[in-house]
Design a protein that fits this description.
14 helices; about 0% strand
Length: about 375
């Protein structure tokens, strides 16, 4: 089905699905790098900024008009978002707890675990007690409360987000990113996942999420331009290739802060703009859709699943790297698809059908998780 034949609210952006899936797999390589040695993914932390931007597009597409027309309340929107995020988040955290319980626990570590479980159950960021990780049970989850915060601000002020104000929001957050890049020791955007840097993550989500919202506002104009260009499938694959190149690049330490800033503030919006313009068809569309379907499960489950494999393999994964890493990548993909089909999708469907605001909730889908 072509983009031109659909309304924006019903359009499936296969290219965005593909971007998200590929980026999620590159994050897996980063967080289990000892499985893949000597391969490294130096810039793959920028995938989080790409996820935030994709979230802005998808939230604006799925809920923007309904919120403006007051067909969806803030409370109902919050319920939908939590139902979308929590099942896999809790599954990943529970898996981490099970792994921790297999090892020896003294009084101190048992207290720490109880503390982490209490915070994690309500998705409360760890203030730094016992560890520097914001979410000790599943650290990749650090981006979720920031994304939910951006979602809430968008819903609360959607009717006031004029073009001028949107530009102001982007400039403010771009300045915050630049200042943080200058102040932080690593001079990179690889921050937000430990307690002291977590508040500065608001600049990353603030710029990227609202960039995505703004990009979707110009979707119709972009689609008109796209109608004049052939080879949409080829263009979509080129967009995916660009994402891979950016996230696997290795700029020098001197260049890195400038690279990070330009990629997030300029290059990612261009790439997502092209992703809105060009949708693949046929087999390519199905492949992209598959990557999009498994992406959130991959992101939420890869760290605890990697910990489980580490525990069971007793170091053999590292000894057989990088081939063991490729096997792990296949395994985590299979586990994620199974978790989506047999756990996440049924649980979300049940929760939506039985929630107090089910009449305001749209049918559950396997679209982009943001």
């Amino acid at each position: 089905m072509s983009v031109a034949a659909q309304s924006p609210a019903k359009t499936i952006f296969y290219s965005l699905d593909g971007m998200r899936g590929v980026a999620a797999l590159l994050v897996v390589v980063r967080h289990t790098e000892h499985f893949f040695a000597p391969w490294t993914m130096q810039q793959s932390y920028l995938a989080v900024d790409l996820f935030f931007m994709l979230s802005g597009v998808v939230i604006a597409q799925a809920y923007g008009s309904r919120l403006l027309e007051q067909q969806l309340s803030f409370r109902a929107f919050a319920r939908i978002r939590l139902i979308r995020i929590m099942p896999l988040y809790l599954l990943g955290s529970a898996l981490s707890v099970c792994i921790m319980l297999t090892g020896p626990l003294d009084a101190g570590s048992a207290f720490n675990l109880l503390f982490y479980v209490t915070l994690g159950a309500f998705m409360i960021p760890n203030p730094g007690f016992g560890t520097i990780d914001v979410y000790p049970l599943n650290n990749p989850a650090w981006s979720l409360p920031l994304e939910l915060g951006a979602n809430a601000l968008y819903v609360a002020f959607i009717d006031r987000l004029t073009l001028l104000r949107m530009i102001g929001i982007l400039l403010f957050n771009a300045a915050g990113i630049a200042l943080t890049l200058w102040l932080i020791t690593s001079h990179s955007l690889n921050f937000g996942f430990w307690a002291k840097s977590f508040p500065f993550g608001m600049f990353r989500v603030g710029y990227s999420f609202f960039s995505g919202v703004l990009l979707f506002r110009y979707y119709q104009q972009l689609s008109e331009v796209a109608k004049r260009i052939r080879c949409h499938t080829l263009c979509a694959w080129l967009v995916i290739a660009a994402v891979v190149m950016i996230l696997t690049a290795a700029p020098s330490r001197t260049v890195q802060p400038f690279y990070d800033f330009v990629v997030v503030t300029c290059v990612f919006p261009l790439i997502i703009g092209f992703g809105l313009m060009f949708q693949p068809s046929g087999t390519s569309a199905r492949v992209f859709r598959f990557f999009g379907t498994m992406s959130y499960a991959v992101y939420m489950l890869h760290a605890p699943f990697g910990g489980l494999i580490d525990t069971l393999s007793a170091g053999r994964m590292e000894q057989n790297a990088p081939w063991s890493g490729l096997a792990f990548l296949v395994a985590v993909s299979v586990v994620s698809v199974a978790a989506d089909a047999w756990y996440d999708f049924p649980v979300r469907r049940w929760l939506l059908r039985n929630s107090a605001g089910h009449k305001q909730a749209q049918p559950v889908s396997r679209a982009l998780p943001s």
